[in-house]
Specification:
Chain lengths: 417, 222
């Protein structure tokens, strides 16, 4: 077929390159449209992954339950009574409530001071079991996480936040501090791991960078906490909504601790599901906006191409007339205008994609220091999709002018003069 | 070579214009004919019909034994390409193509390869004494040179007839003479040529002058 003749392509490139101003003007619309679309898409993705990396490691279906004083008198108890979540409750919740995956106790101590080698740092101390990692992953940077054996044997080990390492061991720089000891409220603990969590995400019980994580058993014993639990952390099984699970847990706790079923004060609940769904919605909104703006710009570009091509066809009436007079068929003219449009759209679009990809790459490299998980770059599939979209736009943009060009009669060549 | 029988042509419009009112015309192979007439006489319309650029309403037109009637655009384009060479008053060269590319263009539409058609185009330009100007663009050429490029383009497909519409209309008298010499030369080589003109000086250099007035042939001078 003549479409695939190299001659045909030479003819197209000849025509495009010898009418440079026209070509550049036409190409710019598409170039800018696809450039904006890709850049916005990459930017949106970058923002999302940046925030996502802050939230990463945090189970998106987790919930936290705290005890507070009761708000209603019930069965002989007055209102304003103190009650506590007990370790028994944790087991009870885990065994009896439908939809609970992880139920784990946390105890906390605020305002402690950690000391080592003449340096000190004010910290939050939390005691947690190994399964708490399923709720809030510490994103271990050095060493290891706390495990069940630490807990059972009440080992004096800890996982610390990055700020603590910086404050207490400034000479270490970026080195591994594992094996060193810190002193907390008169007791020495060996550092077995460093949490890489940043303070920007969700923090339960204080800044993640200045938190010392101890095994639950160790903390329970050293701080003499008995069976009282500060926070009950939960995750839901797949397919269960955290809010429903939390309601069932609340009902169970109220029954066990003899609290009025309609008391709204006694049980405090926190649900990350709601936060995550809000963020999800936000980014869905952002991406819809990105697509609308990007596609809008691209469409405006395509209409621009179509417009300029129509003007061009009018301007080229004589040329097309001459071509017809010396033997070009209407199909020749149609395919000439169409292929010029498609080639122009593809070329300018590809350069738009290339420039946008380069800029996104630059942004990714620029942010890699502060935010290594931020991803600005678009995927290969998206690039291919964009390129096929361009080809389609080229055909659509070329259609109207090509049909108009086809209608030019050879006699018009002479009449035009 | 050309046989027209009772050709009628009316331009439809608010007021239909009956331009050709029964033209009978026979042109033999190898003849050099001029069609003369005042503007509005219908001579350009006649040339358009001869060149299959326009269709006619009534009558019969046979070109080199081929009936020309109700052709599709594609067929018409093919016949124009292979049977007819055009020369226009305003040269009608494509501005962004150089002389060789302009001359080679009809062969492009025949599907002839680039190298072959450029080589052939160079040969024809050489025959018309433009070898040194082969890679110049139309705006770098004089009027006479442009017309010679146009003639080379008309000849490259080895057409059956050469149709010239006021070929000297945009040229000074000296270059007009040169162009007419070329046409006469081609005539001597056996080509059938039809020239439309209102310049009697040009017309008298042909073998046969056909005068058209108000859409009919007034008289034929040999």
């Amino acid at each position: 077929m003549r479409i695939f003749d190299t001659d045909r392509w030479e003819e197209i490139f000849d025509s495009l390159s010898k009418n440079r101003t026209r070509t550049v003007l036409t190409a710019f619309g598409i170039f800018w449209g696809i450039f904006m679309l890709i850049l916005l898409m990459g930017g949106g993705r970058g923002l999302e992954t940046m925030l996502g990396s802050n939230l990463a490691g945090f189970a998106s279906n987790s919930g936290f339950i705290f005890a507070d004083i009761t708000g209603k008198p019930y069965k002989g108890f007055q209102e304003g009574r103190y009650w506590y979540i007990k370790l028994d409750d944790v087991k009870r919740v885990k065994d009896c409530v439908e939809g609970v995956d992880v139920a784990t106790p946390i105890i906390q101590n605020w305002g402690s001071t950690a000391m080592a080698e003449n340096h000190s740092c004010s910290v939050t101390v939390t005691g947690e079991r190994s399964d708490y990692a399923q709720v809030d992953n510490p994103k271990i940077k050095f060493g290891r996480m706390l495990n069940d054996v630490d807990d059972m044997q009440h080992r004096k080990v800890c996982v610390v936040g990055t700020r603590i390492v910086e404050e207490l061991f400034p000479h270490l720089g970026k080195e591994d501090p594992c094996g060193r000891f810190i002193q907390l409220d008169g007791v020495y603990y060996c550092i077995v791991g460093v949490s890489g969590k940043s303070a920007d995400g969700i923090n339960i019980g204080g800044n993640a960078q200045t938190t010392v994580h101890l095994p639950y058993g160790t903390m329970q014993q050293t701080y003499n906490r008995g069976n009282r639990v500060d926070v009950l952390a939960l995750t839901a099984l797949p397919g269960y909504k955290m809010s429903d699970v939390q309601t069932r847990v609340e009902q169970l706790l109220k029954r066990v601790h003899v609290i009025h079923p309609e008391d709204t004060k006694a049980v405090l609940k926190l649900n990350t599901e709601a936060i995550f769904s809000m963020i999800d919605n936000l980014f869905r909104g952002v991406s819809i906006l990105v697509w609308m703006i990007g596609l809008g710009t691209l469409l405006a570009g395509a209409i621009g191409v179509s417009n300029i091509m129509i003007v061009t066809v009018k301007e080229r009436t004589t040329e097309i007339g001459i071509r017809r007079a010396i033997g070009a068929t209407p199909l020749d003219i149609l395919s000439m205008v169409m292929s010029e449009s498609v080639v122009l759209t593809l070329l300018s679009g590809m350069s738009g994609i290339t420039l946008a990809v380069l800029i996104l790459q630059g942004m990714e490299v620029g942010f890699s220091e502060s935010n290594p998980e931020a991803q600005f770059q678009i995927s290969f599939g998206v690039a291919i999709g964009a390129a096929s979209l361009l080809a389609l736009l080229g055909v659509i943009a070329g259609l109207a002018p090509a049909l108009r060009a086809m209608k030019i009669k050879p006699v018009d060549a002479m009449r035009e003069e | 070579m050309i046989r027209l029988v009772n050709i009628h042509k009316t331009y439809q419009g608010a007021q239909p214009l009956h331009v050709l009112k029964g033209i009978d015309l026979h042109i033999q192979k190898g003849e050099f004919v001029a069609i003369m007439g005042a503007s509005g006489s219908g001579k350009s319309t006649l040339l358009n019909i001869l060149g299959i650029l326009d269709n006619y309403d009534e009558g019969e037109y046979t070109l080199a034994g081929t009936p020309i009637r109700n052709l599709s655009e594609t067929r018409a384009a093919d016949y124009r390409n292979r049977m007819i060479g055009f020369i226009f008053q305003s040269f009608n060269l494509i501005g962004f193509k150089n002389a060789v590319e302009n001359v080679a263009l009809p062969l492009f539409y025949q599907g002839v390869g680039r190298r072959k058609r450029n080589q052939l185009a160079l040969e024809y330009l050489d025959r018309l004494g433009l070898k040194d100007w082969a890679h110049h663009y139309p705006n770098e050429l004089s009027g006479g040179q442009k017309q010679r490029v146009a003639i080379a383009r008309a000849l490259i497909t080895q057409p059956k007839i050469l149709l010239a519409d006021e070929p000297t209309g945009a040229l000074d008298s000296q270059t007009s003479l040169e162009v007419m010499e070329i046409l006469k030369d081609l005539h001597r080589q056996g080509l059938t040529i039809v020239v439309v003109t209102h310049d009697s000086g040009v017309a008298h250099q042909t073998e046969k002058i056909i005068h058209i007035k108000d859409g009919v042939i007034e008289r034929t001078l040999c």
